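Action item from last week, closing it out:
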Amino acid sequence: MVHKVLHKSDSRGFADHGWLISRHTFSFAGYYDPERIRFGLLRVLNDDHVEAGEGFDTHPHDNMEIISIPLEGDLEHKDSMGNVSVISSGEIQVMSAGSGITHSEYNKNNDRPVKFLQIWIFPNRRNVTPRYDQIRLDENKMHNRLQQILSPSPDDDGVWIYQDAWFHMGKFDDNISVDYSLKKQGNGVYAFVLEGKFVIEDTELNTRDGMGLWNTGTVSIKSASEGARLLLMEVPMTS
């Protein structure tokens, strides 16, 4: 029997720091819900809005796989590995924090906000040498299909991380049906609606709703609005 957990958009944690508006699917910083600590090894799913010219000062991470997906605007990144880059809408960035890194993130632009997802996943190896990567995604490959954007292998499509996790993203016309087959037994899937409406396993989801499913081998997905966009995250349920 398929198990589900539904997180409606307006049930997420909320923080307004003036320069930053953040919505937390899982417990983070000042938001704590013992029922929403994580989904399997997916620990953080933050939906961030950073005002023009503002950002996160230099801060540390270790032993976490950190994925950033800009949805609007441009995010400037600097880290202790010497990387200085700008990630923009249509790209994905990954950092394996491993034995320890510091980095900063700022809105590159002084005239408009940047909106991005920050996602943390527990790694399957500790204290690795920190690493960084970013790529531009081919949105044409996402039309009416789920395109892989992250995996455990550097030889597959997308970026890679130290975990048996796979991310897919798609943008769909109205009334398009697809099935997702899980890559590894014991994994679960967390679906996050970026825009529009979907029906996933007979449950209707709207913009920024999320739903986790596990104890299943396939997930049925149907778009319910034109231009609907979905991020699908397959992760281990246990370490």
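Closing note: The longest strand covers residues 42-50.
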